[in-house]
Amino acid sequence: MPKTPKRKLKTYQTSLGFYDQAIAAPSMKAALDAWGARSNLFHQGAAKETDDPDIVAATMEKPGVVLRRPVGSDGPFTEHSGLPTDLADDEAKPKRKSKSKPKKSPSKAAKQPSRKVDDQQARKAAAAFEKEERRREAERRKEEAARAKERARRDKAVASAQAALDEARREHEARAEAIEAERAALDERAEAEQSRWDKQRMKLAEAVRRARE
């Protein structure tokens, strides 16, 4: 059976929150999924494909893994990045921040040696990406199975509680019917007794009347 050709990876970059983020992925959609984006950042101009050799090389070493660096910095992308160092200085030291900007020189990046990604490295990166993608998919399936198990446990508990409620309701209704039947019988006996007494009372009263004559 012929093997499915591996998809060529590209490097995509965006800025979310406190971080610049980059990833080697086969498509923009795959990049958006890995970033957890809820909208198309590429259409919004908030994400792009990059050919920066340093960023490409870093992402190709860990394809499918989201790499980060503090937002606005020009440092290397890593899997675990710290927060921007100037967050606490934005209000307290505005002048220091303004002085640091001119130190950045575009020529510095241009002077760095280019690290071209060859075909062998690209194939290796694509294979690693697919492995990472399978790992993430396995994690998703595991989480979904756990959620399904929890739903089944909850549904079973609800069904058990509902069954107990229904059984108690049936028992109550049976007892209420028995009490109602007893009440009807007592009412019938009371009426019979009242009728008997009325007849006896009238008879005795007539006897008293005759005795007085």
How would you portray this structure in words?
- Helices cover 60% and strands 10% of the residues.
- The protein has a four-stranded antiparallel β-sheet.
Write the layout of secondary structure elements.
Elements: E1 10-16, E2 19-25, H1 28-35, E3 47-49, H2 53-61, E4 67-70, H3 89-92, H4 94-100, H5 106-111, H6 119-212
Antiparallel strand pairs: 1-2, 1-3, 2-4
Adjacency order of strands in the biggest sheet: 3-1-2-4
- Oligomeric organization of the protein chains: single chain
- Helix-strand category: alpha+beta
How far apart, in Å, are the first and last alpha carbons?
Answer: 128 Å
Which descriptor suits the 3D outline?
Answer: rod-shaped
Low-confidence stretches: 1-5, 91-114
Radius of gyration: 42 Å
Taking all residues together, what is the mean pLDDT?
A: 81
Beta strands, count: 4
The helix/strand series, from N terminus to C terminus, equals EEHEHEHHHH
Secondary structure: helix percent: 55-70%
Compact overview of the structure:
By secondary structure, the protein is of the alpha+beta class.
Structure keywords:
four-stranded antiparallel β-sheet; 6 helices; single chain; 213 residues; alpha+beta; rod-shaped
